[in-house]
NAD(P)/FAD-dependent oxidoreductase (Comamonas terrae), 410 residues
Amino acid sequence: MFDAVIVGAGAAGLFCAARAGQRGLRVLLVDHADKVAEKIRISGGGRCNFTNRDLDVRAPHRHFVGANPQFCRSALSRFTPADFIALMDRHGIAHHEKHKGQLFADRSAEDIIAMLLAECAAGGVQRWQPCRIGNIAFSASNADGESAGSYQIETDRGTVTARSLVIATGGLSIPKIGATDFGYRLARQFGLPLVERSPGLVPLTFDGAGWQPYAQLAGLALPVEISASAATGSKKERMTFHEDLLFTHRGLSGPAVLQISSYWTPGTPLTINLAPQVDLEAELLAAKARSRKLIANELCQWLPARLADAWVQQDAAWQRPIDQASDKALVQLAHRLSRWEITPTGTEGYKKAEVTLGGVDTKELSQQTMECKSQPGLYFIGEVVDITGWLGGYNFQWAWASAHACAQAL
Ligand code: FDA
């Protein structure tokens, strides 16, 4: 009999297993994939953006999405970015800050995986991998009614019994490295509600004639301000990000689009300011008074040349020297560039999404322990829960913090 069986040896599962094992619990960690922690390995361009220094634990809604982002406050305040940094430092793993508080390993994400495996070994954690899971059953209590119940877990290495069952099987993104809907199916088996799932931190796609002028811009990147009207919980609010935008063959990507994708509602437009650092209308009207250059050439002061060239092709009134353009045409041009409204037709889906929005409804979980309120001994941690972080290390911080909260309670 194990104290805990943890399903999923990714970020949350490994960390939870290590912490619980180090508390003296008998822990079995099971994963169906051949390789451990594949998402850590591929994250952050191979260097894993493992946390973010700017996380404000008093205001989780600033960096987390979900029906109730406040749910993650308790766990995040009991295991902070500083706690994970201290662990990295104890293991001598050098790291650096890149952009907006994002912390990366200097050498490789492999160092973080090795650290988590060493922490598991220090806790005497058994790991079965690859190992397939079959049926899971719960026995409410033993004959004398003294125990709270136990889980019988069928695996291809035999059936095991555990006092607690922790589900750390992550979300649906990148199925080719082992993502499955296991966690959601198990939640349903035990009668837990789910918040609808969809791809998050994902490139957005555009089809048809409306996209034609921009299709030639694939590979071009520039800093923008991007915003969308977001339904956050029961409220509607405007979300805005200042980040880089990348044109792709099928649409738009880059940090700006990945961030806004987690708030975007299908069928609604994005608003993009392609030159957020200047008042384009004032600049163009001032240039008209002093310059005879083509409008496209003037635009190159504030925009990449390829974008300026493609943009002016959309209207004959913009394809002339700036001193010969009407004020109206310049005002329209400035408006179109600083308030570009465009409606995505879809997303690149789970094969390109970094995360899954939605998941196990937090209403049914304890925010202190991650245990189901209606099912004793069953815990959900990490991405399988309806908590999704912004780009920038917030998703791993949620994995570490929810794992820690659970491990303390097992
Ligand atoms: P995770 O996905 O890590 O682990 C789940 C585990 O469960 C896997 O090992 C899987 O094999 C296993 N499993 C699934 N189904 C199973 C089944 N049926 N039976 C047994 N085992 C099963 N975040 C961040 O903060 N910084 C970053 O730099 C990045 N970068 C990044 C890049 C890319 C390309 C992706 C796809 C994602 C990121 N992320 C990220 C997001 C981050 O990787 C993600 O949020 C965490 O890995 C979630 O941790 P979990 O432990 O919850 O799931």
